[in-house]
Amino acid sequence: MNDFEDIHEKTNELVTDAGKGQHLFRMKEMESYMIGPHYSTSEGAAVKGTNIQIVYVNKPKGTGSRLHTHPNEQFNFVIKGKLKYKVNDEEGIAGPGDLIHIPANAEHYCVTTEEEDAIYLASKDTTYFIAGDATDGEKSGAFYEEGYQPE
């Protein structure tokens, strides 16, 4: 059994449920965890309501996600740093104040540039888990720019 078997169910257990009467979530202070370690370096805390889930994401510089998909729509709002992104055939760089729209089932990735870590809010609908799956079908871990692999 590999470390990523049942990863969606395991990660989903870590998402804070907003339906229990709490209305304020100090996301920067919440315990963070790896959001999709089978394809990404994204770490953060997630809160899930009835229809929307939000993740406060920290992604280390020079790292990110491999090309992946998920059946739920997503928006990434960049707070700090820069993200190199690809959504279907569009590629670019998003910085603070920029919003990346990722349609449901779109092939995409986000990789932090090498200058500094990135912080962004990811918002997805709740029709699927918080993380997706790599398009190559492998649960082999995150993407690392050369020189940024873990030691």
Written overview of the protein:
By secondary structure, the protein is mostly beta strands. The protein has one domain: Jelly Rolls. It contains one helix and 14 strands. The protein has one helix at 7-12, and strands spanning 16-17, 33-34, 43-48, 52-59, 63-64, 68-69, 74-80, 83-87, 90-94, 99-102, 108-112, 118-125, 133-134, 143-144. The strands form four sheets. Strands 1, 2, 3, 4, 7, 10 and 12 form a seven-stranded mixed beta sheet that branches. Strands 9-8-11 form a three-stranded antiparallel beta sheet, with no helix packed on it. A hairpin with a 3-residue loop joins strand 3 and strand 4 (52-59). The chain is globular and about 45 Å long. The two termini are 24 Å apart.
Topology record:
Layout: H1 7-12, E1 16-17, E2 33-34, E3 43-48, E4 52-59, E5 63-64, E6 68-69, E7 74-80, E8 83-87, E9 90-94, E10 99-102, E11 108-112, E12 118-125, E13 133-134, E14 143-144
Parallel strand pairs: 1-3
Antiparallel strand pairs: 2-3, 3-4, 4-12, 5-14, 6-13, 7-10, 7-12, 8-9, 8-11
How is the main sheet built? 7 strands, mixed
Indicate the CATH class.
Answer: Mainly Beta
Q: Count the DSSP helices.
A: 1
Poorly predicted runs are none
In total, the number of domains comes to: 1
Q: Evaluate the radius of gyration.
A: 14 Å
The appropriate CATH architecture is Sandwich
Percent of residues in β-strands: 35-45%
Helical fraction equals under 10%
Q: Any idea what the shape is?
A: globular
**CATH homologous superfamily title:** Jelly Rolls
